[in-house]
Amino acid sequence: MFRECICSFSLKIGYDYKKHKSLNRLFLFSLILRGVSRMDKDAFLTEHKENVRRNRMAQSGFWKWSTLLLLLIIIVGIYMYGLPGRVTEQSQDKASEKALAFLNQNLLAGFATANLESATEENNVYKLEVNIISTVSDEEQNATLYITKNGDLLFPSAIDISDFQFEETQTFAVEAADDPVLGNANASLTIVEYSDFECPYCGQTYWTMKLVLADYADDVNIVYKNYLLPKHAYAQKAAEAAECANLQGDFTAYHDMLFENQDALNVKDLKQYAVNLGLDTAAFNECLDSGIMAEEVAADQAEGVALGVKGTPTFFIGEQTVIGSQEFAVFKLAIDEELAKTSS
């Protein structure tokens, strides 16, 4: 009967026996001591399962306490040393000591020694008055140094700008009454362009501005102004020629002719363009040869200098400035923003 009980019990808990050998041996031993009968098997199985559950709970409890202890260590570390990346201030004495050690062990090593005369806090940094004594001669020198409160940055000097009053960017009104206009004269937004007919970047942007005028035909126009670069030998006469064409009311076509033929801007070419466009060539030639429009060109240049123009092309779009040969998207963004202001 005992052998039958043992075999039957082993069959019932064979899987658990392999998983918990030590526990099952104890149960088998207890079966032997008690002389269990076939009817007691279920009770012992229940007891076995309860012991397994308790064992697992004990293991789980160990990990819970380990996690809690680790969390406690992290909290204490943060309290004592701060979060990673946080700037931790040092005391004035420690920061001063670090600065002197750096000077004596690095910058002055072998020929001079620095001694701290005084240390004060000023404008959120430590100000150090230091006496530097040469070790190779009788010379000494006083110096003022500054070190950040975390002791990481040492400054040999500082400039006090607390009383400095900076000038805010000024907005200049651009006069456009007598200047040639490209596009719709009644448009709600005017772009002021400072350009040079010989400038290659202006030639590139010429095509972009044609797209602008096409896309914003009802809303945008361009006031053209001359800003000549010294290295462009043909720019002066080209600008005067465009102004002469403007006197005959045909600036836009002449403007386009010049930008589309930037490699041919000598006086002979300029006069031929007037012929091609059907202008009064006698009046045009007299205007160009006399230099009467040079004063108008110079006035544009002077106004550009006053506005801070440094190069070409430069565009003033409402309250925004666009400089250089930019993509259409750049102009579109500025135009849309300025148009939104006028409609609000």
Which structural class best describes the helix and strand composition?
alpha+beta
Give me the number of helical elements.
12
**H/E element order:** HHHHHEEEEEEHEHHHHHEEH
How many domains would you count in the coordinates? 3
CATH class of the largest domain: Alpha Beta
- The name of the CATH topology of the largest domain is Glutaredoxin
Average pLDDT metric: 79
What's the CATH H-level homologous superfamily of the largest domain? Glutaredoxin
Provide the helix percentage.
40-55%
Uncertain residue segments:
1-29, 31-39
Biggest sheet, open or closed, and with what strands and sense? Answer: 5 strands, mixed
- Taking the alpha carbons of the first and last residues, their distance comes to 102 Å
Strand order, main sheet: write it out: 5-7-6-8-9
Key phrases:
344 residues; Nuclear Transport Factor 2, Chain: A; Glutaredoxin; five-stranded mixed sheet; four-stranded antiparallel sheet; 9 strands
3D architecture notes:
- This protein is α+β, with helices and mostly antiparallel strands.
- The chain has 3 domains: 2-80; 92-155, Nuclear Transport Factor 2, Chain: A, CATH 3.10.450; 181-343, 3-Layer(aba) Sandwich (Glutaredoxin), CATH 3.40.30.10.
- It contains 12 helices and 9 strands.
- The chain has helices at 2-12, 14-19, 21-34, 41-81, 92-107, 200-215, 235-247, 251-259, 267-276, 281-290, 294-307, 328-343, and strands at residues 112-122, 125-134, 140-148, 154-155, 181-183, 189-195, 220-226, 314-317, 320-323.
- The strands form 2 sheets. Strands 5-7-6-8-9 form a 5-stranded mixed beta sheet. A 4-stranded antiparallel beta sheet has the order 1-2-3-4, with helices on one face.
- It is elongated, with a radius of gyration of 45 Å.
- Mean pLDDT is 79; it is low at 1-29 and 31-39.
